[in-house]
Design brief:
The chain has 391 residues and is α/β, with parallel strands linked by helices. It has 14 helices and 16 strands. The strands form four sheets. The protein has an eight-stranded parallel beta barrel, surrounded by six helices. Helix 5 runs parallel beside helix 10, helix 6 packs across helix 9 and helix 9 crosses helix 10. The chain starts with a strand and ends with a helix.
Length: 391
Amino acid sequence: MKAGAFLYPWDVVGDPDAAGRITDLGVRQVTLASAYHSTRALTPRHPAHRVVTAEHAAVLYPPDPDRWAGRTLAPYRQSWTPGDDPYGEAAEALAAAGLEVHSWVVLAHSSRLGAEHPDTSVVNAYGDRYPWAPCIARPEVRAYLVDLAAEAAARPGTRGTELESCGWYGFAHLHAHDKVAGVCLGDAAQYLMSLCFCAVCREGYGDVGADPEALSAAVRRALEPAWSGGGSPESGRDGIAELLGPTYADATLRWRGRVARAFQEAAVAAVRAAAPPGFQVLLHADPVSYRTGANVGVEPDHILALADGVVLPCTGSDAQREAVLGPFARRGGVRAANFGVVTGMGGSPRTLERDAAHAAALGADQLRLYHAGLASGPDLEAVAAALSRLG
């Protein structure tokens, strides 16, 4: 089973041994960040630094000035890795070591965009803005993200791409010093907290038969027991309908599903138009279509007719893996099982062989390993041992 590992350019730039270490793991592919959100990353093996602070969402290559000239929304450039094109430098070193390089493109996730252009952000039913979550229903946001997808994906020397956050982002966010766990919000309540009520989405709800003022009031009423009682455990579509009522639940799901599908279609089409023949396009995805975040909710038949496949979150229990992989079983396209291999971040590299075999039995045909640059030496040793036995 083909295996690939995630990397940042700063894991490679300035470290002449990095590409060889990745090759020695037994992977054939590297998914290398070309457009990424803000992060603070440990670099435990780099000869020149131990921590990289990416202060804001940015592209890790020189953006095309002609493409972005005169546009209000444009990608931000990075300043924390030396050189004009750290993605290109890292990609060249990895390819020279015999590795396939695929780009890793984060789309609807940028706190700096929301801070500098607040009208682009998701607005919840209480009027709070989520600056990390661009609203993909807004035409100017969609146009920006589609062009970003095309430019960041089809970098020179790149064989394919993996699009992350290619859909709705919402309430859940691994934000610095998060203080949001005091009330337990279940799957359905998270959905309600992720609904957008910007001007465009309000109009969209009206188009599908839901008065936006009445809908926002219904969302607030539905969530009130969570704030006063300490939690809201409902889950699934039935849970959404229980909280919001079937009419409003259906209206929001139809509007948001329509927007997400249109955005995914436009982004994939733009990448294909910019890329050479045979360029592979995968989406980081979740088969529950209303989910938000890095692994966006998709409709399996729709996304597999559009892209070449999906990357699915498979760290966790057997039941969690079955829930994610099951809806894609016996369908075409790449089904890459993504496993965390950083023990300190909840990964389990020492059970990788067994977990990967289970994923393969459920229909996965590739592996992704998160994250070769962040993992400790013992974690990488466990990965190499597992891959050598998996063949």
